[in-house]
Structures are given as C-alpha cells and as structure tokens.
C-alpha cells in the first residue's frame, strides 16, 4: 500500500498540516496520530516478546503484536481513504446546478458524498477503539519497565477517536436520511463509551504497576 504521508519526514507532515492545503484534514490527522498510540502499545509488546521474565505470556504477546501490525496497515489505508472521500466531496460540490436535473443529480451525489465522508472517520474511530482495548489487555502483563507507555498509547488513541468523531459530526449535519443519522449517532455513542471504559481500565492497571 502506498501513502505519500508515510514516506514524508515528520517536519514535512507538520508543515503540510499547518498550511492552507485541504489535506491532511481532521480524519486523516486522527488516523496518523492513532498510529503513534498503536506504536506505544506495540513497543511494550516488543519489549515483552522473547523475555524470559515474561515467558508465560509469550503467546498473548505475539498475538497482540500481530494485531498492532494489522492495525497499522489499516490506519495507513484509512488515511488514504479519508483524503480520497474529501476530494470526492469537493468534486461533488463543484457539480453544475443550472437546471432542475442538474440540481437533483448534485443533491443525490452530495448525500452519497456526505455518507462516505462519515463512514471513513467512523471506521477510523472504531480502529482507535481496538488500540485502546489492546492497551487495556497488555497493561496487565506487559513489560513493567515500560508500562507507562501503554497508558500513553491508550490516551493518544482515545484522543484520536474523539478527533475522528468530530469529522463524523460535521458531516452528519448535511445528511437527510434520518435513519442513517440515528444509526451513525448510535455507533458514535457506543464508541465513546467503550473507549472511555477501556482507557479507564488501562490507566488504573498502569498506575498500579508503575
């Protein structure tokens, strides 16, 4: 999978984020930041893997590391998707509306674009929840010398989740399908609650083991 933002230097990414370029936007940034949270969880897994002191949790650690690798790949893809749906949205805004037929076609296309621009950040938020849940898992058995980094991962992933959900909110306002809006809003509420619960669980255990 190719993503130009993952080949840039950190300074280049920051410069572009600070510029007037429309991308990376909120959803993309949330996904990229989530990669760092995921990285902290993976790092503690890597520091646990192969250590004699943690021999009894090697199977769990290897499985967790596999999951973090999969999440990293998916987040990279979601950065691409978020930028693509934004570009699609902008193209739709530029559609002609000089007569009734054009107005109807544009309106229908706008509704599809709004939903696409909602689904991607929702998926980003769902992926962030996976990171927090992995943090809540490994904090119980991961290498104690780096256990605070699990907490960092949980906090960062939760912040990314909330950031992605702001991108959901801004698009929901333009969607006319009330049933879809209700479903998306319900998904949001579940994500927020589960993320809070998992993060609280992780931080309690992290502080106990510090």
Protein described:
The protein has helices at 10-18, 26-48, 58-93, 100-138, 147-172, 178-209. The two termini are 38 Å apart. The chain has 210 residues and is an all-alpha fold. It contains 6 helices and no strands. Helix content is 79%, strand content 0%.
Task: Summarize the model shown.
The protein is mainly alpha-helical.
**Uncertain stretches:** none
**What is the distance, rounded to the nearest whole angstrom, between the alpha carbons of the first and last residues?**
38 Å
Amount of helix: over 70%
Quaternary state reads single chain
Q: Could you tell me the strand content as a percent range?
A: under 5%
Describe the global form.
elongated
Secondary structure: number of strands: 0
Helix and strand string, N-terminal first?
HHHHHH
Q: What can be said about the biggest beta sheet?
A: none
Structural class: mainly alpha
Radius of gyration: 20 Å
